[in-house]
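Re-running DUF389 domain-containing protein to confirm reproducibility after the cluster update. Everything else is unchanged from the original entry.
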Amino acid sequence: MLHLRIVCPPERTEAVLGVLRAEQGATHLVLLPGAGLDPAGDVVEADVAREAADDVLAQLCALRLDHDGAITMETIDTALSDAADRAEARAPGDGADAVVWDELISRSGEESRLNVTFQSFMVIACLLAAVGVVTDSPVTIVGAMVVGPEFGPLAAVAVGLVRRRWDLVRRAALAVGVGFPLAMLVTAGASALGEMGGLFDREVFNGAKHQVDFVYQVGPFSLIVALLAGAAGMLALTSAKSAALVGVFISVTTVPAAGYAAVAAVLGNWDKALSSTAQLAVNLVGIVVAATLVLWFRYRQSRSGQGGEHRRPLAAG
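Result of re-run:
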């Protein structure tokens, strides 16, 4: 279930209570008159089944509470209540299949920002990938896959395309477009220093086959895996099954390909550098395409179930 806290002008409190009382998936209704200080107003709290949350939020936004008050939402991990059990049973559908669009837009908008934290993770992930390449360590390559933060902005691109939120698309594209080249540049510099310091040998890298050669070997399965990963990742985001995202992270070779390309370029192996760059491009495009298709399908489902679009455009993050 989800916990809602609403700050509303006193003259709209009855309307808010009417929305929540009429919703079969809502329970644990609490009214605190005059408790809101900034913004000022009454505070209404309720627990809502996930599958009913999207419709409740739409009705609350129709009351302009997002402008004249406040609506906050958080996930409830445990609810020991017969009333909560009844509310979830009465709500149509299944919580795991429900998409809370406001939550998805806010979450993807936050994870698509180009900031110091995002760039730091990107650089660390590429450096880990470079270490895995020069030491021929698949385990380190997997570690780089998990650390890489690139799925957030890729998912945000899909959300922006489906919901026609071009500001979100631009922000996410900026994060990817700046994040990868900058991380690869830092990795190339570190690789050059490593070679000069004798940490690895150019001849060994350019020699016989290695266990991590799969990183730059682009082919049909590169696209297939990227499509499957993008679909699984978007399903995980929209169904709140975040544990599945770990499998997404370690199934695609975005960050490893970037790290491999940087190392190969420094060591003068341009064939591997170009192949790795192609691998990176295929994975990025495949993830976005699959995530967009999955989200578009779920969006069409939600619209057909609600009788059409009735939501305002929301600010991302």
